[in-house]
Amino acid sequence: MGTIAVSELRANLKKVMRRVERGESLEITSMGKVVALLVPTENKQKKAREKLNEIAGKAVLHDVLSPLDVPWEAEKQ
């Protein structure tokens, strides 16, 4: 995590925003004291896609259309 003074942030806002868009997090300081954090937004779509890909690798597909060998309670009546 980088550090940037408020005055530098004001002077270079576009450059700083590009850094954050690329994934860098920054501590914003005023008079040497950290007053805020500037962090990239969470890319929910990317995380969801990664999670689905992870789960897809573990999935086991079976024949879901054929009858089961075990009778259902509803069929017993």
From TrEMBL:
Coiled coil: none annotated. It comes from Chlorobium phaeobacteroides (strain BS1). Belongs to the phD/YefM antitoxin family. InterPro entries: Antitoxin_Phd/YefM (IPR006442), phD-YefM_TA_antitoxins (IPR051416), YefM-like_sf (IPR036165). This is Antitoxin. Antitoxin component of a type II toxin-antitoxin (TA) system. Pfam families: PhdYeFM_antitox. SUPFAM superfamilies: YefM-like.
